[in-house]
Amino acid sequence: MTEIHQEDERLGRGYDAGLARRLFRLALPYRGYVGGAIAVLLLESVSQLAGPLLTGAAIDLVLSPGLKETGSGSRFVARLLGHLGFSTSGPRALDAIALLYAASVLVTFGLMILMVEWTSRVGQGVMYDLRTRIFSHLQRTDIAVYDRTPVGRLMTRLTTDVDSLNELFTSGFVALLGDLAVLGGIVAVLFALDAGLAAMTLAVLVPMVFVTNWFRKGARDTFRKVRTRIARVNAFLQEHLSGIVVVQLFRREAAAREPFREVNDLHRKANIESIFYYAVFYPALDLLSAVGVAAILWYGGFRVLHGAMTIGAVVTFIQYSKRFYRPLMDLSEKYNILQAAFAAAERIFQLLDTAPAVTAPARPLALPSPVRGEVAFEEVRFSYKPDEEILKGVSFRCPPGSTVALVGATGAGKSTVVNLLLRFYDVTSGRVTVDGVDVRDVDPVRLREAFGIVLQETFLFTGTIAENVSFFDPALPRERIEAACREVGLGPVLDRLPEGLDAKLTERGGGLSVGEKQLVSFARALARDPKVLILDEATSSVDPETEERIEKAIGRLLAGRTSLVIAHRLSTIVRADLILVLAHGEVREAGTHSELLARGGLYARLYTLQLKDREAALAGSAPAA
Amino acid sequence: MTGRSRFLSYFTRRPGTYALGLGAMLLSTFLFLAIPRVVRAVLDDLAAGVTQGKLARSAAVILALAAADAVCYFWVRRILIGASRDVEFEMREDLFAHLLRLPPRWYRRNRVGDVMSRAVNDLSAVRMMIGPGIMQAANTVVVGTVALVLMVLVSPLLTLVALAVLPLVAVATQVMGRITHRRFTAIQELFSEISASAQECFNGVRLVRAFAREASEEERFDRQNRDFRRQNLRLARLNALFFPFLQALIGCGFALVLWVGGRQILDGKLTVARYVEFNLYMLELVWPAIALGWVVNLWQRGTASWKRMVELWKAEPLPEEDAAAAGGTVPTGALEVRGLTFGYDGAPPVLHDVSFRVEEGETVAVVGRTGAGKSTLLSLLLRLDEPPAGTVLVGGRDVRELPLPLLRRTLVPVPQETFLFSDTLAANVALGAPGASREEIEAAARAAGLGPDLASFPSGLDTIVGERGITLSGGQKQRTALARALLTPAPFLVLDDAFSSVDTETEARILRGLREAARERTVVLVSHRLSTIQHADRIVVLDAGRVAEVGTHQELLARGGLYAALAERQRLEEEVEAA
After folding, report:
1. Could you give the CA distance from residue A41 to residue A108 in angstroms, rounded to a whole number?
2. CA distance B421 to A259
3. Residue A103: which H helix or E strand, with range?
4. Is residue A546 very low, low, confident or very high in pLDDT (cuts 50, 70, 90)?
5. CB atoms within 10 A of CB A410
6. Contacting residues for B286 by C-beta, under 8 A, at least 6 apart
7. Which residues, other chains included, contact A473 with Cβ-Cβ below 8 Å and sequence gap of 6+?
8. Which residue does chain B place closest to A287, by CA atoms?
9. Which letter does DSSP use for residue B245 in this model?
10. B266/B48 Cα distance (integer angstroms)
11. Helix, strand or coil for residue A223?
12. Confidence class of residue B379 from pLDDT cuts 50, 70 and 90?
């Protein structure tokens, strides 16, 4: 448990080649989309560059009549216009340029649509695949993993961690390429237009990178600080709301406000610190971009004066320099996304890499067909933790068709017997057999198909009664489902609910009483007509009428099949063929009810206790009026 | 106070801050919107011929304007966003103070998780509204107005052309925001569905395995997973296309301006320089137009969240007791319950006509099966729930007439579920006696049987316990609670099953210590354990909300009634455990 827990705490350790390769492999099934997206992206960054160029050309070619020398950008546009059969000067050229401008905008948009479509398909596809893989893996993983990992943590792997990979695949790496392409394109065009001015404009990039880097680091650090501090504020709040009764009983209302003010203020201070970074960063970028504009005007103007450059080219430069920001800012954000994604990927892969210990053998044996239903434990020893033996050499045999009751105090090892029989865990030593075959030699799925089980705590899935009884098995005929329901005494319930078998149930039961929910779980076991039934009786007390219905249903359930019952009901225990009294991991007493009662040992005492409870319950249900 | 006036009060408290912030914003706007004018002048000069010195001066002016603007905008952010953090701080303080004063019955109706979500998530949404929300809204209005005026000055016709696009941008942002929100909500619902069913499958893993249903569970998950992918794809498309769409819209606007403006230049109605100036103004309007839609969404979310927070404010707090009342004399004497019949909020009564008396210095145990009404009885003694008038008296005074602070100094509880705060052990013990000396704290801890544990803790009494410190065992927690009660100077001690996690041997030791420490106290204790109960001077047996038997341990055993049956049961249980 601890290793997994620590995994959650660990922050991403950044780039890791092995991890990157595994992540890359996730995208392989979608390589067509990835390739397409990259191709489109390159085209799109070219079309994004058209705007400023066209504006400059409009100024040079059309709006500054009498200009002898035009810049290389405008010449390029002029040649393009010529190729397309447009006039290169006058109002017609203006129409053409405006048209081209609008066309470039629409082409960019069209390419964007394609790119978004494809990258989203990659991202959503990878996430879908991962969720499927995690879920399937968890269907095969050892029960021991479930017993030591809180379900919430498994859910985090399946949801939050998978989500953080999404950004990597959609907005992460493709957009990263996109930003680089746009930056590269701008730089290339600038140099083609005028190398000197380009170098000057790019000089602004250097401080911009510095400022961005400073901001990224500072913002990340303060962000972490804000996060830990808000966590403290919320923990404090949660603690005091949970313990509000204690707070009020000990009149700590006023005293609690002081430390709260402190953590609250620390949070505020951390936030104000982070405001500082933002408040500096954005104006600084604006300022640097203004420096760029000033430099272009100054140096470009100087060149214009000497006839080495056109006004159109200067305007083009100004417009390009304004487009530096976005890709730059995006780039710094991408780094954080990458880090989070790597950390999440590490956790996911760690889960997927844990191989189950309880598996089917290479050449599994088959249980005899049909299964007779003879269950035996031979000198079984077992422990969950190395030095804490739960079963200390347990042996017993359930002949086919018999009912065996396991009784004993909490912690005696009753549920462990069930865990081993169903191969949720494997024995430390000894053997568990079904029809003489060691359960470890059988494919666990085949083995379990021979069993029917009713857990102590009734577990219903969100779905209809029919779905709960059939356990979402479409192969189970409706008549069987209904017959099983009526058999365990759910008939009146089906008749009472307007939707009958199709009535919706929720985790909490939705309209069924505690007893009725138990009956549904009985029907679930009965519907598959198992050869061996395992019944862990519920301990919760129900009213006498329900009790009677349950007892009757248990009778039907046990009839004609081998049954192993962790019994709490006197009625069940009394009619068992064999009673095993478990204490501290050993079978203390074994025999029928009358034999054990006559012996006057542990069982006799347990029996009296049960009787007492029963009397008390009866007395309680009819209060002295 | 209404929700609206409470909201406004946070702003009217700091009029200067907002005036300053908005003033800086106005100044900044004028400064950076002056730059295009300088650019125009340079371009005009270039067309007409200019000296290098003048060119350099113009560049310097641009730099100066930009620098001044940067300084102004730094302060805009610092002041306005900073103010929102201050308001958040105050709102959180006020809310916490309010929550502390809400009565226990309110907490029974409202889950802590829900309260937390309002105090955390909703407050955060409100903060977004009053921070970035207000700043951007103001920015949009100020920049929009100033830029529009300047654009009209350049060319009214071009302004009209530009305006054909910009409002579309704002509307598009808003509409897309709304659609996104709708799709997002749908996905959230699907997400909770898929999580719920996966979680169900994990929780019921034993059943799934036992019934060999792994394959069908995978299929079921796959169906939802596919649907989830499909819906997510729809949202991702919309989300990702949002900015390109705006870009395209704005791009078309620029193309239109280029076309119309070019014509005007050809017709001699506009110069190139003025056209460039206009273009630069238009660029500055793009962001405010986009932000407008975003701001509208922030406001919608923020006001919805504020409404949810107002619901917390509406809850009636416990009355503020005046200091004089709190300082009254602590009543001493007997504790009496007289004909107490009580049911929760109109439900059938849980207690029927319960009467008993605990003399000064006496220890009385209340026993009974689960659901007999023991916990309700204790909550009424402590006035966590309001008992009917004249039914619960301490030292002859009705508990309802005692101001709460005084009552809290009269009766001190050891609750069933011990709550420890993330603080030192000493602070947790001294919760009810803030002025207690180190020696007193230690003595109480020892009396409660914590002595041997203290030695094993890393820093003894200064060890941090609770969520951020070491985890105490159930028994250690209970003994801490007991020490807390012993240290609190109150004449009545109410123990609610306070030894359930302590082994019998330690319990006997504590009880001996307790008799010593609590000699002058009147004690009411609820317990399931015979070993605890038999130390009491008298025992009250509750059954189905009524007093069934009263007497000493011996008397009740001899009587062979309910108490005798409970005792017998426990004896058997112990035998089975020991077997």
Report:
1. 10
2. 12
3. helix A90-140
4. confident
5. 9
6. B169, B250
7. B213, B216
8. B66
9. H
10. 18
11. helix
12. confident
Q: A388-398 and B492-496: which strand pairing? A: unpaired
In A, which residues are within 8 Å of B96 by CB distance? Answer: 237, 240, 256-257, 260, 264
d(CA B239, CA A166): 14
Predicted confidence at residue A506, as pLDDT, reads 63
**Among the CATH numbers 3.40.50.2300, 3.40.50.300, 3.60.110.10, 1.10.540.10, which is that of B331-578?**
3.40.50.300
CA pair distance A475, A471, nearest whole angstrom: 10
Phi and psi at B332, nearest 5°, equal -125, 170
* CA distance linking residue B305 with residue B123, whole number of Å: 7
Tokens of B101: 């004063």
Please state which CATH number belongs to domain B1-154+300-318.
Answer: 1.20.1560.10
Helix (H, G, I), strand (E, B) or coil at A77: helix
Distance CA A175, CA A330 (A): 8
Instruction: Answer left, alpha or beta for residue B52, where phi above 0 means left and psi between -120 and 50 means alpha.
Output: alpha
Q: Could you give the CA distance from residue A245 to residue B384 in angstroms, rounded to a whole number?
A: 8
Q: How far is CA A259 from the centre of its chain?
A: 36
Q: Name the residue facing B198 among A143, A158, A240 (closest C-beta).
A: A158
Name the token pair of B557: 């055993």
Q: Searching chain A, which residue's CA lies closest to the CA of residue B68?
A: A287
Q: How far apart are CA A612 and CA B565, in angstroms?
A: 8
Q: Which CATH code, of 1.20.1560.10, 3.60.9.10, 3.20.20.70, 3.40.50.300, is assigned to A7-353?
A: 1.20.1560.10
Sheet holding A375-385, edge to edge: A388-398, A375-385, A429-434, A437-438
Contact at 8 Å (CB) between B453 and B525? no
Q: How far apart are CA B37 and CA B154, in angstroms?
A: 10
Mutation for testing the A interface, residue in B51, B93, B200, B375 having most A CBs under 10 Å: B200
In the DSSP assignment, the letter for residue A311 is H
Report DSSP state, residue B469. Answer: S
Contacts of B220 (CB under 8 A, 6+ apart): A472, B197
Number of H helices, E strands in chain A: 27, 12
Q: What is the CATH number of domain A457-529?
A: 3.40.50.300
How far is residue A267 from each of residues A245, B1, B121, measured CA to CA in Å?
27, 28, 15
- pLDDT tens digits along A143-166: 888 887 777 778 888 887 888 887
Alpha carbons A352 and A453: distance in angstroms, whole number: 29
Asked if A579 and A596 count as a contact pair (C-beta separation under 8 A), the reply is yes
What residue of A is the nearest CA neighbor of B279? Answer: A319
Question: CA B474 to CA B464: how far, in whole Å?
Answer: 16
User: b/e map of A459-481 (b: 16 or more CB within 10 Å)?
Assistant: bbbbbbbbbbbbbbbeebeeebb
Give dist(CA A97, CA A324) in Å, integer.
24
Best residue in B207, B287, B330, B367 for a mutation probing chain A (most A CBs within 10 Å): B207
For helices B272-314 and A311-321, what crossing angle results, to 10°? 20
For B438-488, write each residue's pLDDT tens digit. Answer: 898 988 888 888 888 888 888 888 888 876 667 777 788 888 888 888 888
SS3 at position B419: coil
Q: Token pair for residue A516?
A: 């009725």
Answer yes or no: are the C-beta atoms of A52 and A64 closer than 8 Å: no
Cβ contact B100–A253 (<8 Å): yes
Residue B488 corresponds to which tokens in the numbers above?
A: 């609190």
Domain ranges of chain A: 7-353, 457-529
Name the band, by pLDDT with cuts 50, 70 and 90, for residue B533. Answer: confident
Domain-by-domain residue ranges, chain B? 1-154+300-318, 156-269, 331-578
Question: Are A358 and A142 spatial neighbours (Cβ–Cβ below 8 Å)?
Answer: yes
